[in-house]
Every structure is written in structure tokens, then in C-alpha cells.
């Protein structure tokens, strides 16, 4: 499984756009990039998943360059409630089902 | 919105005691999982379950652990003889064929 590297922490202010970049240099052809969010004392929650280029949903956007060795989660106009840990994961479809390898994630702190 | 529910939310037990953590996955999901998170550490995969059998398990999931789907709705994790190092949040998750995992709120296990 491809290893991911992301910043340990980030600070932001309400209303700002936050971009969290994750590197996954050893990503394989069958791998997808998935981001989860975790609030304290809660289970992780799926945010977004992509394979290449750009994916957008009601919560976030995911930018994946052509070489797929990195990805950027973009949170538009964050609020205090977006304070959480954000995990970048690489999942192999056709491989292990649901065996997600969580790293330490990026702890995002949103300040007023 | 359908959700994964877990009971109990918190259990305190003595070392050596048996513990059963219960989960009700989302009703039309076919894949079930247990993860754990020791305080301040990563979310770790324990086991995945599909078609009434374990499909994958991690090194953590040793002979002290077992899973069962005793009826059509519950999915349980049993720890036969708890150790101090079993103290953690245990998260149940379920998914359908698309692979997005839905996590429960977790069960906090404290072993004294």
C-alpha cells in the first residue's frame, strides 16, 4: 500500500479556504485517494474520493495532478466546526476491502 | 440518514474479563469492520467481515479477539480476556460494494 505524508497540523481562520496537501509517491495504478475527517471522540467520516483530476462534492474539492503523486483537499470557507483531523488514504480497489491504513492525519484548527 | 450504531458507548472492565462490543451496521451493507484507536494514536484496522466470515484481519486481531454476526442485524466484537493495552476506542464500520466506510460513534473500553 502506498504510504502517505501530510502535515501534522494546520491553523486557519473562519471563512478562509484551507488546502491540505498529501503526498503519495508510490501510488499504484489501481489506487484511489480518499479523505476522511475525524472529530474528537467520534469515528472517521468519509469526505471525498478521487482517482485523477478534480472531484467536487458539497463538502470539499479534491485536486489530483496528472502524476497522482500528491493530492490536495480543499475546504472552502471553513468554520469553527471544521476543526478536526483530516486523513489522506490510498485505497487499492481489487485489493483489500476496507482495510484502511490511517496515518496520523492533519489536525486542522479553525480559529474565530 | 442511516447510521452505524454501537453499544455500549463506554465500558469499564477488569483485566482478564471478557468484553463484547456490539454494533448495528447500516441495513443494506454487506461488509463490516472493526477498527480501534488507542488514545492519541492512529486509527488501526482490526478485522473485516463479509458473507459470514472474516475476510481479512490485522496482526492486532489475535486469538483473544473474535467477531460474530449472530443475527441479521448485529455485528459483535468479543475480547476474550482483556489486557490493559486493550483500552481504546473501538469503531465499527460498514460499507456496501462502493467501498465508502461508514463508522459508528465508537465504544470506549477502559481496562483496569
Summarize the structure.
Chain A is an all-beta fold and 112 residues long. In chain A, 0% of the residues lie in helices and 48% in strands.
Oligomer: heterodimer
Strand order across the largest sheet of chain A: 1-9-8-3-4
Count up the helices of chain B.
0
What can be said about the biggest beta sheet of chain B? 7 strands, mixed
Distance separating the two termini of chain B: 36 Å
| Computed CA radius of gyration of chain B, to the nearest angstrom | 13 Å
- DSSP strand (E) fraction of chain A? over 45%
- Strand/helix succession of chain A: EEEEEEEEE
The strand count of chain B comes to 11
Principal-axes shape call of chain B? globular
Percent of residues of chain B in helical segments?
under 10%
Poorly predicted parts of chain B: none
Helix and strand composition category of chain A: mainly beta
Number of helices of chain A: 0
- As a whole number of angstroms, the C-alpha radius of gyration of chain A is 13 Å
Low-confidence stretches of chain A: none
What descriptive keywords fit this protein?
heterodimer, A: 112 residues, mainly beta, four-stranded antiparallel β-sheet, 9 strands, B: mainly beta, seven-stranded mixed β-sheet
What can you tell me about this protein's structure?
The complex is a heterodimer of chains A (about 110) and B (about 110). Chain A has strands spanning about 10-15, 20-25, 30-40, 45-50, 55, 60-65, 70-75, 85-90, 105-110. With about 110 residues, chain A is mainly beta. A five-stranded mixed sheet of chain A has the order 1-9-8-3-4, with no helix packed on it. In chain A, strands 2-7-6-5 form a four-stranded antiparallel sheet, with no helix packed on it. In chain A, strand 6 (about 60-65) and strand 7 (about 70-75) form a beta hairpin. Helices cover about 0% and strands about 50% of the residues of chain B. Chain B has no helices and eleven strands. In chain B, strands 2, 4, 5, 6, 9, 10 and 11 form a seven-stranded mixed sheet that branches. A four-stranded antiparallel sheet of chain B has the order 1-3-8-7, with no helix packed on it. The interface between A and B is medium-sized, with 20 and 26 residues.
